[in-house]
Amino acid sequence: MNRLLSLIVLFSVLVVSLISEAAEDLNVLPPLDGEAAESGLVYHALQKRAHEAFANRKAAYEEIKTAEDCLAYQKRMQEFFRSQIGGFPERTPLNPRVIGKLKGDGFHVENVIYESWPGHHVTANLYLPDSKPPYPGVLVPCGHSHNGKAADGYQRACILLAKNGMAALCYDPIGQGERYQVLSEQPNEFFRGGSRYRPPHPQVQFYCTAEHTLMSVSSIPLGSNSARYRIWDGMRSIDYLVSRPEIDAKRIGCTGNSGGGTLTSYIMALDERVQAAAPVCYSTMFRYLVDFNGPQDGEQVIFGQLAYGMDITDYTLMRAPKPTLICAGTHDRTFKIDGTWELFREAKRFYTRMGYAERVDIIEADAPHGFTIQLREGSARWMNRWLMHKENPIFEGDLPVFTDEELQCSQSGQILLDAGERSLFEINDGLNQHLAKDRAELWNSGDLKTLRDRVREVSGVKKLGELLRPEFKEVGSIQRPDYQITKLIIKPGHGVPLPALLFQPKERSGELVLYLHGGGKDVDAGAGAAIEQRVKQGDVVLAVDVRCIGETSRKNNRKIGWSHGLLGPNYHEWALANLLGNSMVKLRAEDILVAARFLSETQSKNKPEPVVLTAIGETAIPALHAAALEPAMFSKVNLSQMIPSWGAVVKTPETQNQLINTVHGALKVYDLPELIKLAGETKVKITQPAGVTDDLAVKAP
């Protein structure tokens, strides 16, 4: 009976405890409404900064008055663009091979392979007219088609050009067609995470948009972007075109749709050989992306471009006065037509200032996003006008297309499976190994002050003295046995209120602890959990949600289904911060510094005391930056579930939620182990190290 009574009492205590915990509401911020409810707190704040950047750019554009002003503007933009994508390597031999030939009606096709980097091959189809050469050559970068160059629309665009006397070279971008870079060992019937689309090869896992962004994850720490590799593929493809005796090297054009429109825009801006260009279903002002669908996949997010004042229209302005046709769809849901007309007006004024107003034009198909027949015909007519100097109308008619197998260039259907092929991730790993030698030499100097300055310069994290002291507001409290939890809203001045829980024992006898959990401030805040254990030792603990964590994290971003969950829930926040020249690591590190100083100044008994910094999961890398740059602020640094280095990120094809932990160009100066030296090796403790493939992202409810 006594045992039964004891069990009943224990059960009652547990029930009361559970009811008590269930009654506790550890949320701090009020429910969101209006625009913030749709976009989230962090995105909404960054959006305001983006609009300030748009206004600054517009003002700078209006200062361009003369042809000389235009030339100076072009030079400045081109130099910035090349720098931000990491520049280009030296040209190496193409080592081209013709794999097979196909016969069409009035044209023929050659399946070709050539190297854009040593050991890294491009698979392409060259459409040649049956008429007598030489021909103009038109590069056709693919949009986001799963089967790349074999997609019907891209075949028809190339056939139309060839039947009208122009050669066309259509190639597989990395991450599409025969050039997927992230393959699985097990066969896949459908792309991962869905049952709607079948991949072009059984070992392909992810949509091309996801692959492109994974390549940016690998490239960003090197100071690059997947755009670098995609542009370089295009430039080397032009190298191949002009190497062919049938092609007139002085008559080169470029046209592509969607993601191919992006690449057309990039290539036409940076490669002077492109005489005529027609980007399709891409050209709109960045404001319309930021305000509606958000920034797109990895190669379309160039670090710092909005802060610098480089908008999408600038790709057209950079090439003026060379002929450019803007092709668009009235009902394009991604690249809004209103923004397209705004872009065209800017371009028209710019071309007019240079004295060649007739060389930029626009066509608008009453159609949705895509390389529709009207746009295929329009781009072909544009090439016909400027490369052939003819004005005859061109109509497509019925154009039979080839099968994927007929256009295949690789032995296996995926070039990465062919012997000796190097992936982009292997190329990046080689680049990092080269940088590692330079880093070792730099860090062997032993001048920690100079090294700290270099880290600050690359990371962009402000000095503590430059960060505003926040306003704060108490919005509630919870009483537990032996201690109290005070709900705080900390307002650092950047537009995002940071929710916090301040745990105070009845009598403080221990340390001041700043507690940051990647899953949110409430993860370890329950009765008996890690925070309570510290409070019962006499510590004062401040648990904070820094930007894109906990209550400030995007809860349900339906616009990134293409990411397969590989990029975490806050992709658009990362992307917009990146466009504004900030990493999320920088923004979070500054939040951490502000919170640490707030804790020290408000809770120290006499003068401000150093703080114990505990960071878990997604908060660990920004916490390490904060400790490395302001070591006097922290007495101990406890990091858990942190990756050991960015070097592992660079070489790993399938990383999980690592984009938000990247810093543009960091590996040119430092990797994570060097930050430990700056923070103080004796006070940094790392437990439960994470791998770059561990899924540490917070799942949306």
From TrEMBL:
Keyword field contains Iron: no
Span of domain Peptidase S9 prolyl oligopeptidase catalytic: 232-348
One Pfam entry name: Peptidase_S9
Gene Ontology biological process terms, A to Z: proteolysis
Signal peptide: 1-22
Keywords for this protein: Signal
UniProt entry tagged with the keyword RNA-binding: no
Protein name from the UniProt record: Acetyl xylan esterase (AXE1)
Single GO term (MF): serine-type peptidase activity
